[in-house]
Amino acid sequence: MLIASAHRSSAWCSMYHLFKTGRILLPDDFPLVSESLPQPEKPSVPVRTAYDAWLASRHLPGGERLVPGAHRRFSLFNVKLALIIVRTCAFEFFSRLLSLHPVRTMLMMSLNVIRSLFPAFRGYSQALIIDELQSLVISGNFTWTRLLHLVATELVRRIFESLLDGFAASNETIVVDSARFYVEYVQMEQRVRLDIPTLSDPAVRDLLQESDLFARSFSGSGFGLLSPLDFIHIISLVTEIFSHVLLILSLTGGATHYGVLLLSIFSATLPLFVTWFGCPDAHSETLYTPREARAADRQEKMRNLAFNDAHRPEIELFGLGDWILKTWASARKVVLDSEQTQNFRDSSFMSKLNFSDFLFALQNIPLVLLLQTSSASLGSLTLYRSSIQSVILASRNLLATSRMVFQGIFFMSAFCAGRTLKPRLQPNEEDVVCYQTSLNGATIEARNLSYTYPGSSEPALKDVNFTLQSGETLAIVGYNGSGKSTLAKILLRIMDHDLGHLAINGVDIRRYDPQDYHQHLTAVFQGFSKFSTTVRENVGVGRVEKMRSRTSIETAIHLAEADSVVNSLPYGIRTILASGESMSYPGSGPSSRQHGLSGGEWQRLSIARAFMRANEPQVDLLLFDEPTSSLDAHAQNQIFDTIDKISRSPTGERIKSCIFITHRLSTARRADKVVMMQNGTISEFGTHDELLRRDGAYAALYRASV
Ligand SMILES: Nc1ncnc2c1ncn2[C@@H]1O[C@H](COP(=O)(O)OP(=O)(O)OP(=O)(O)O)[C@@H](O)[C@H]1O
Fold first, then answer.
1. How far apart are CA 229 and CA 464, in angstroms?
2. pTM of this prediction?
């Protein structure tokens, strides 16, 4: 989350503190544990963890934060943060990777180092051949056999090199693939483990986005980062440079021309200094300002609108074409302008200046000096020239790799920090209570429940009080936006109330492990998911263990009165459905094989999904948010009859509690109790008849609806 302006000065104090002391004082705006949810921000904390360092690296002057994926500047401040990350997470991460394939990984590293010596050997061997030839020709002893012998030796060396290269490449593929699987697995695990309150935190979203970038770098997806395994390439490049420098030393040292040596090293490293000092901003090309980032985001949204068929009807009906085009164009211009500015910066005078000719000439000076020595030979001169070129090339690569690795370190910190994120709804281990199924359905006791959505000024729920006894049915009714669905999500433990107390079966709901709690209830959401997959999977996700059981799927479909829908589909439960997002129009490609459904038909499948587990004995709460809003009156009555049947034992005794939210007040009559919600609070509570007699808001709504 962006720091509030009142907090900005403290953020800058923090950075200054780090410069002075090696520690940074930070706003603690990221509660990682559930009990620390909306806490007042602490003024400062030291940077200790990878997360702290990641957060600190995103600070911009003025209290803003870098957009996810933006490159960090190479500064003393960031170098210190990078060192903290290396200490707190890089070692652990790499030792985890090493443990996947210890022998192969060590082999990969060793082979990389050995292969980095090859260019020096190659140069040396070629120099030998040239010298040999030179001496043969000068002495007049030239024979083709001798030449063939030399060429054959070189050929054998090259065959050995390529065999080793082939083996190294296949070994590296195995190591990289295992590492990629591990990283992608952890990344998926992060996503499925975290709950809605955690995922809706903007800081967590940014963190996960950078963590994804890190994971993708293993697949070599081109966003300017090397794979973290390319860290190893730094060692290879250093070895390569070292081996060439040794060769140059051996060529120049014997000649006692230290001037030659110095000139050589100077001419080889000059390009690096030019790049480093001459173009200080060359590595900050993706440093978007928040305005540019917003434009990039808007540009993508408009592109999606234009390309997604699901929006086509409304785009046409409301004539959105021009608006989409204009908005896209203005956003695109901002993005292109920013790229242009960057390109201009990159092509500044210093970086444009072509030094290669100058350097080429410069390297001729030591060559001429070398020529004056007694040890000069054609081979040694060739070797000198190729070694100098190799040093320049490898040094450039080293610089580029180091910069990428530097960025990679910050993305790695996001990956490591993501692993330590604790889902906010998860209670501490010592507080966890195992859910005990109630024989006659769940009891609910809500006392002064309040909830405000992050970023909202008005609470969505205020002082909500009600009780539900075992086996009772409760109807929640009210005007749009009165807080019904919000209350449902809190009862389902999808969200956490801010204030008040909520007990299920006499135990504080916060003490249940959400995974355990969810085993004991079933629900239909108002905005239920429509998956672009088969009917079987659309229904089966209600109880994954029974997804392969045709009987279970068909029973649930039958209970939801959806048999006729499914029977009319070309492949029955194997028919692939088109959800809104992938909705296509006739002849629009491969998705035309998918089958569309009407709103009511989809709703029946969502009810079938809930019925997959409703019959299970451990389920003692059924919650339906507008389950029949798209159904005709006949189907609606049948569904409510089924719900009633499911919530009773074969002897007719109530064994499951049931809550349903409805705008159709004729169905509210079926409930034992009715809750009337207005402006986020319960304005009336009682039986249907009691509320009618009271002649208040419920009675007025009822009369209006029937
Ligand atoms: N994700 C959200 N972020 C911010 N505010 C929200 C969010 N979802 C809902 N609200 C607000 O919370 C209030 C209650 O919304 P809720 O969805 O609970 O109402 P509802 O009674 O279920 O409405 P409806 O009958 O239209 O389904 C509304 O004022 C709504 O604008």
1. 54
2. 0.73
Q: Do the Cβ atoms of 658 and 673 come closer than 8 Å? A: no
CA of 314 to the centre of ligand 1 (A): 23
| Residue nearest to ligand 1 atom 28, measured at CA | 481
CA 167 to chain CA centroid, nearest Å: 34
Contact 456 CB / ligand 1 (< 6 Å): yes
Instruction: Return the HEC string of 414-480.
Output: HHHHHHHCCCCCCCCHHHCCCCCCCCCCCCEEEEEEEECCCCCCCCCEEEEEEEECCCCEEEEEECC
Calculate what percentage of the chain has a pLDDT beyond 90: 32
pLDDT digits (tens, 9 = 90+) for 132-155: 777 777 777 767 777 788 778 888
Mutate to test the pocket of ligand 1, among 484, 624, 665 (most ligand atoms within 8 A of CB): 484
CB 664 less than 6 A from any atom of ligand 1: no
**ipTM > 0.90?**
yes
Alpha-carbon span 394 to 283, nearest angstrom: 19
| Pocket of ligand 1 contains residue 486 by CB under 6 Å | yes
Residue 679 beta carbon below 6 angstroms from any ligand 1 atom: no
Q: Whose CA is nearest to atom 18 of ligand 1?
A: 483
Which of these ranges, 257-261, 390-394, 414-418, 649-653, has the smallest mean pLDDT? 257-261
Among the listed residues 252, 507, 232, the one whose alpha carbon sits nearest the alpha carbon of residue 372: 252
Rounded to the nearest angstrom, the distance between the alpha carbon of 662 and the centre of ligand 1 is 15
pLDDT the model gives residue 266: 66
Span 165-205, pLDDT tens digits:
899 888 988 888 888 889 888 888 888 889 999 988 888 99
Q: Does the beta carbon of 485 lie inside 6 Å of ligand 1?
A: yes
pLDDT recorded at residue 580: 65
CA distances, 296 to each of 58, 205, 309 (Å): 19, 17, 22
Is the minimum distance from the CB of 481 to ligand 1 under 6 angstroms? yes
Could you tell me if the CB of 483 is within 6 A of ligand 1?
A: yes
Strand order in the sheet with 621-625: 521-524, 621-625, 657-661, 473-478, 673-678, 681-686
Do the beta carbons of residue 538 and residue 609 sit within 8 Å?
yes
Q: Are 689 and 672 in contact (CB under 8 A)?
A: no
Question: Is residue 457 within 6 Å of ligand 1 at its C-beta?
Answer: no
Residue 73 clears pLDDT 80, i.e. is over it:
yes
Round the average pLDDT of the chain to a whole number and report it.
80
Beta-bridged to residue 464, according to DSSP, are 449
**Beta strand segments in 587-672, E:** 621-625, 657-661
What tens digit of pLDDT does each residue of 456-465 get?
999 999 999 9
